[in-house]
Amino acid sequence: MNKISIEFFGMLVEITGKKNIMLENIGDTENLKLQINDLFPAMKKQTYMLALNNKLITNKTTILHNCNVACMPPFAGG
Amino acid sequence: MLNKSEITRYSRQIQLSDFGKAGQERLKAARVVIIGAGGLGCPVIQYLSASGIGNITILDGDLVSESNLQRQLLYTQSDIGKYKAKQAARRAREINPYIEVKANCSFLNADLAFTLFSDADLIVDCTDNFGTRYLINDVCTLLSKPFVSAALFKYEGQLGIYNVKTETGYSANFRHVFPESLNSGGALDCNAAGVIATLPGLLGLYQANEVVKFFVDPSFCLLNKLLTVDCKRITHQVFEISNAHEIVKLSKEEILDRAYVLPCFKETKKEGKNIFDLLASLECEDTILVDVRELSEMPKVENIRHLTIPLSQLENRKEELTAFKKVVFICKSGVRSARAKASIEDVYTQIKFEICDFGAERLMQELNESVSYK
Questions:
Q1: Contact, A76 vs B153, CB < 8 A?
Q2: Residues of chain A contacting B157 with CB distance shorter than 8 Å
Q3: Residues of B annotated as catalytic (active site), given as ranges
Q4: Between β-strands B287-291 and A68-72, what pairing exists: parallel, antiparallel or unpaired?
Q5: Predicted confidence (pLDDT) per residue in B218-277, tens digit
């Protein structure tokens, strides 16, 4: 089984009610977002970047087994 | 050249082997512009002044309010109602009489950014809204200026140093991390979301740290990296920015034409239009004032006919506005009102949408002082 860990940051922690979750058999980043939206419908309206193993990515990317994924929204406060 | 008193003053950092007098001279020669004198700006101003940055310009159009005092430690009770930039500059000179400090009591716009940044060696983004952050990024990127940016959410912070010249070009800029197409307008500032007092102190110190490193030895700076800090969980993570090689730069014409959503008015200064124009328009039952701040924000709008529809809920509640012919949006500094108007005016073309040209805090202050309106 292809297991990955997802970590949420900022407002996403409040929206999902979770800091970390585990998912299986995700495949790639586009499928990941679909799965997250299914689990947490409020996430559909949220904007965030993905990082795989602490590397921010901008294109569709394959997610390997044991990958650590971060969902990073932009912060505004100052 | 450092004089004898300066050498004594800075001795504790001069004695660091990779700092020395040469590093201190570089700080003295540095010209830094700090945009924002609030939660992040206060520790940045304190530590850059104390460290000996020779020329500092502080820009902020805001006034000190009581809710700032919990975390903006350059200010005291007696500063309430005064310009932050002026008070911060005064405190910076008290901290270090050997540096030059200028205050500009304005909100940043594109013209001002080009004027101020042209003579600067580095810009520090201590702002609290995306419009200004993207403006800073775009002007700095075009003018080839490095900048240090930080942002906060409750107990978490983000930080980066951007657009630093390297052997192979320039390091990543803010748009490499958060493309504007992400529609980042939903993110809340500290007034809306709340913030623990220590967080801006911590992130402001990290910003000052990057500034000092930049001038002394930029090889130690967080290039092509995003630092995140969680002061509740006590975790730090560094994320690599992998697309820095992509050119993401706007032209001057594009910047001047771009509709950055920027703060535009002062919160409590009694100038410009008074509230009586607003009250007069609300005499008509088909006109309504809509407060788009979050429910937790203070002061509450009271004693005036209004609806409270937080910007985050406007999409779901916009039907409530169809009962009116004119809607006046109000928020804290104009950013969210502008965003609310932009999001809805093409949907309901039969309604006239306006933005209140003062914030809720000023409205309630003046209402409490002079008018009781039901």
A1: yes
A2: 75
A3: 190
A4: unpaired
A5: 999 999 999 999 999 999 999 999 888 888 889 999 999 887 867 766 554 444 456 778
Q: Tell me whether B177 touches chain A (CB under 8 Å).
A: yes
Prediction pTM value: 0.84
In this model, does residue B287 exceed pLDDT 90?
Answer: yes
Query: Does B179 sit behind a cis peptide bond, omega within 30 degrees of 0 on the bond before it?
Result: no
**Residue ranges of domains in chain A, CATH in brackets:** 3-72 (3.10.20.30)
- Tens digit of each residue's pLDDT (9 = 90 or more) over B347-374: 999 999 998 878 888 888 777 765 444 3
CA A36 to chain centre: 7
Q: Is A24 exposed, middle or buried (0-12, 13-18, 19+ CB in 10 A)?
A: exposed
ipTM of the complex: 0.96
Q: What are B148's two structure tokens?
A: 């240090």
Among the partner-chain residues A19, A49, A78, the one whose CB lies closest to the CB of B36 is A78
Of A48, A56, A73, nearest to B226 by CB-CB distance is A56
Q: At B165, which helix (H) or strand (E)?
A: strand B165-166
CA–CA–CA angle B111, B206, B194 (5° rounding): 80
Residues of A in contact with B60 (CB under 8 A): none
